[in-house]
Amino acid sequence: MKNQSAEPSLSWWHLSLIGAGGTVGTGYFLGTGIALKSSSWFTIPAFLIAAFATWIVYKRLAMMTMADPCEGSFCTYAGKAYGRWAAFLCGWIYWISTVLIMGGQLTALGILSRYWFPSIPLWVFTLIFAVLSITVVLLGARGFDIAEDFFSVIKLSALVIFLFIGASLLSGGRNHFHLNGSMPFDEGFNRMRTSLIFAFYSFAGIEVIGLMASRLTETKDIFKSGRALILCLGSLYVLALWVTMKLQAPTHFSSEESPFISVLNRGHVPIVASCFNGVILIAGFSALAAALFSVTRLLRSMADEGEAPRIFKRKWKRDIPLPSLCLSVAGMGIAIIASHLLPGIIFEAFITAAGILLLCNWAFILLSSFKLLDRDVRRNGVSLFALAILVLAISGTFTLKESRYGFYLSMVLLVLISLASLLFNYKSSRRLAKS
């Protein structure tokens, strides 16, 4: 099926690059420090399991996209499967989770910037990066594509370069950490469970491919784009984590410094560490801009379907949904204020809450596929297994002290969105009854 979008069409590899731009960010480069400290080498199986579940979710989304391409993607499919209340719920969960992701990215960018300028307040850096991300989005779809291509190549190259540097340090005898094979199974399982949310967060943004699939030159290439992206990211993620843990014990990791920067500093390559910190800044900024770009498009699509106020239908130059952008910017403003008031816990709280809401949306993708796709027993069985993994990841956030605030925050937000969805459904029913 040919692309019918008014925006520039995309090839499958181009969409994969954009997906990498929206996926590889500070959630991996900074957030994995929390997972490594709490879960040690059990972080690796957590990433493998998360990659598998991500592929299943993506595959089901791709199958629905192939059967029925639409701009609203998973929100539209939820509505077709369960009613407009589900589309409303799914859309606003995604919007709020993306705002939280942007808040986490902004906070992380501030933390990373203070690596060079420790005396400057965190909120100053968050404000600077917020303005820059808005500028990228104002370039329009074509400008955004070019920027994300550039950022994606840098980020993927950085992971490859880190692997080469790590391999050279290992070959030089800098092996500081050895696996502990005597740990009881239940303790190992619990450690892996607590790190699942950080692993899934590192794949957050993969659904951007679904949102932009309508721009593919050939819609069937959506499978190729996702397969290439998840295989590439999963391999680089796991290899980089393995090298990191071989070079440094987990007790040295924290959320205040990227584990990769920590390894390079302890390996006595500070110049490379400083350069790598700059690359991580680019990675985080790229993911921030991609999140802002995708969420503004989604809000416009929701307005078209009646699940958001009509004002968000309006467009500006270069097809930019300006009212939608302004609301997303307001969400970022709240994140900047929060990072100023609660600098010690806000990063962990944001990425945990965003991860939980993200997984709720992924669960909706699987549940929608049960009704909209064929009743193949094997495929549905695999999807149920992936759904169980998502539930397992959410349950693990309550057991870890660093992520408990995020768990509470996500539960409050889910209750509020659910109440709003019930009110929306009630008003929609009343409107239909009158007509």
UniProtKB/TrEMBL annotation:
Q: Which UniProt keywords apply?
A: Amino-acid transport, Membrane, Transmembrane, Transmembrane helix, Transport
Task: Give its localization.
Answer: Cell membrane
The primary location reported for this protein is membrane
Q: Which InterPro entries match?
A: AA-permease/SLC12A_dom
Cite a single GO BP annotation: transmembrane transport
> Does the keyword field hold S-adenosyl-L-methionine?
no
* Top-level division of the source organism's lineage: Bacteria
Report domain Amino acid permease/ SLC12A positions. Answer: 14-371
This protein is called Amino acid permease/ SLC12A domain-containing protein
